[in-house]
Write a structure and sequence with these properties.
Elements (H helix, E strand, L loop, with lengths): L5 H7 L5 E4 L13 E6 L16 H11 L4 E3 L5 E3 L2 E6 L5 E6 L13 H9 L11 H5 L1 E8 L2 E6 L6 H4 L13 H7 L6 E7 L3 E6 L14 E6 L3 H9 L5 E2 L7 H6 L3 E6 L4 E5 L10 H9 L3 H7 L5 E3 L22 H10 L5 E7 L7 H13 L3 E7 L5 H4 L9 E3 L5 H8 L14 H12 L3 H18 L2 E7 L1 E6 L2 E2 L9 H4 L2 H4 L1 E2 L1
Parallel strand pairs: 2-11, 2-12, 16-17
Antiparallel strand pairs: 1-5, 3-4, 5-6, 6-8, 7-8, 9-10, 10-11, 12-20, 13-20, 14-18, 14-19, 15-19, 21-22
């Protein structure tokens, strides 16, 4: 099997031709059979099999992690491998990409998978009314051409060396052409597991799809059951009492209890997950860069790492690019400085300011406590933060992207362009700070098409600096993924750090011990 990580792709040069060919390595140590029961947060009664709407781990794990497939997949070690695409090639300018599709694949209703399915599945994301978070990715495709039943060509508006990575986005699932509505209604994909039942916001059950194209290399359970447990205490109890085999988002305050249970083990993975406080920069007073700078100096980042993460993470610097990204730049750290915060308040013509900050455990565990700590530290600079505790149910539909300032989180992305185009590009549906900075946008487009790694490093470095100094998102900390597993569950030596729960693919990669 040949795979290529992003550094290797750029070092070799896109013009080298075939960038990745894939196969599925056997994992002899994994045991086939049994059932995986997981208790997961991030579920909503509005959940569906429409991947365009997915935003949290419950549906990511159900959809991309079990029932549906992408064209490409970010492996646990961060390399890019093919899923429904076997290989891909690029033109010298990275504008034209040809994907060779895997043959012999069927959807769960028996329909064969091919080029028509790819084109129709991508076309779902574009259009004036589309609210898909992957809209910016697909809109960059100027042409989609069916070469053969198992070969598709994408012509981009401008070169993008990261395009194969973007095809692994959990919003871009492959649906059967001509029956997409039926597939969304019933969960008809090409994944390792076939849906048996689905109660939105409650649970999903599925069984191993017979004769799957991944063979014996993945999908080791006979059946899976994912239970929605948004309440933190209930989730911990479910694991400790043996009701579930795995949970996400360990409550650090109860970690000692879990460690004392001989049937439970804690798994900690360092990645690019970051906890944030985005503000709508088109709304006063956040439209004033001096107010934003004052807020940046008003937060005690180390205190949040110590008291909210209990050390399970590290201080961040108001940029979403973390140490796991290839072009991460170590910038001078913004430190807590009430005097500097007060200086920028004065630059904004203010002696003090009153602002509302909405928070909920739906954003991240400890978000309300974090907001209150922020409230206390900022008060020394004349910044009066009114913390509004919002209900967890409906937080992502009623608060995020709607309230002027709120708590949020991001899992991070494997590449800089993927992260920036999802959350910081003008017009992106998930641009949760309404960020529109001319120089930043100019660099975003330039770096996307740049094939020289050194030049890209300079461009992405400047973008990180702009966000640190002027951005509308307070990013005080990177948080490790800390999840709980029953000792009866076996995981590979390397566990994915792109999303929670092994990139959401625990049903594919884990097994009974």
């Amino acid at each position: 099997m040949t795979t290529m990580n992003r550094r290797g792709l750029l070092k070799t040069g896109v013009a080298a031709g075939v960038l990745a060919a894939t196969g599925m390595p056997l994992r002899a140590q994994m045991t086939r059979g049994g059932k995986l029961t997981a208790g997961l947060s991030g579920a909503n009664t509005s959940d569906s099999w429409d991947a365009r709407t997915h935003s949290d781990i419950f549906m990511i794990a159900c959809c991309q992690g079990a029932v549906f497939d992408s064209l490409t997949e970010v492996a646990a070690d961060g390399s890019l491998v093919g899923e429904l695409a076997e290989s891909w090639e690029a033109s010298a300018d990275a504008k034209t990409w040809t994907f060779n599709l895997r043959q012999g694949v069927t959807f769960h209703n028996g329909k064969s998978f091919g080029a028509d399915d790819v084109i129709e599945s991508l076309q779902m994301h574009v259009g004036e009314e589309s609210k898909s978070a992957a809209k910016p990715i697909v809109e960059a495709v100027a042409e989609m051409n069916k070469i053969t039943d198992h070969q598709v060509q994408f012509v981009l508006a401008s070169g993008n060396a990261d395009f194969p990575y973007l095809m692994s986005d959990y919003h871009i699932m492959m649906y059967p052409a001509g029956m997409i509505e039926e597939a969304i209604a019933n969960g008809i994909g090409t994944g390792l597991y076939q849906v048996q039942s689905f109660d939105p916001g409650v649970r999903m059950t599925a069984t191993r799809y017979p004769d799957h194209y991944k063979g014996d290399s993945a999908g080791f359970f006979d059946e899976i059951e994912y239970i929605a447990i948004n309440d933190n205490t209930a989730r911990m109890n479910a694991l400790m009492t043996g009701q579930v085999d795995a949970i996400n988002r360990i409550d650090f305050k109860t970690e000692a209890l879990l460690n004392a249970n001989p049937n439970v083990r804690i798994q900690e993975v360092t990645g690019n997950q970051h906890y944030t406080f985005p503000m709508l920069t088109g709304t006063a007073p956040f439209n004033d860069v001096n107010v934003r700078k004052a807020l940046k100096y008003g937060v005690n980042r180390q205190e949040l790492v110590d008291k909210i993460l209990l050390g399970h993470g590290q201080v961040a610097n108001d940029t979403p690019i973390g140490p796991a990204n290839p072009y991460y730049m170590e910038l001078e750290q913004l430190e807590y400085d009430p005097d500097q915060a007060r200086f920028y308040m004065q630059q904004a013509g203010l002696d003090s300011i009153d602002v509302d900050l909405s928070a909920s455990s739906a954003a991240f565990e400890g978000a309300v406590d974090a907001a209150q700590l922020y409230q206390a530290s900022a008060s020394a600079a004349g910044i009066n933060i009114n913390v509004i505790q919002e209900p967890a149910d409906g937080y992502w539909s009623n608060v995020w992207l709607k309230k002027p300032w709120c708590a949020s989180y991001w899992s991070g992305r494997a590449t800089e362009d993927w992260m920036f185009s999802t959350a910081y590009e003008v017009g992106a549906p998930w641009n949760d700070s309404q960020w529109d900075h001319p120089r930043f946008q100019e660099l975003l487009l330039a770096a996307r098409a740049e094939l020289d790694s050194a030049k890209r490093a300079e461009q992405y470095g400047e973008m990180q600096m702009i966000l640190r100094d002027e951005g509308g998102v307070i990013i005080p900390m990177f948080a490790n993924y800390v999840q709980g597993l029953a000792t009866s569950i076996q995981t590979p030596e390397t566990v994915g750090n792109l999303w929670q729960m092994d990139n959401g693919r625990m049903a594919e990669r884990w097994s009974k011990a």
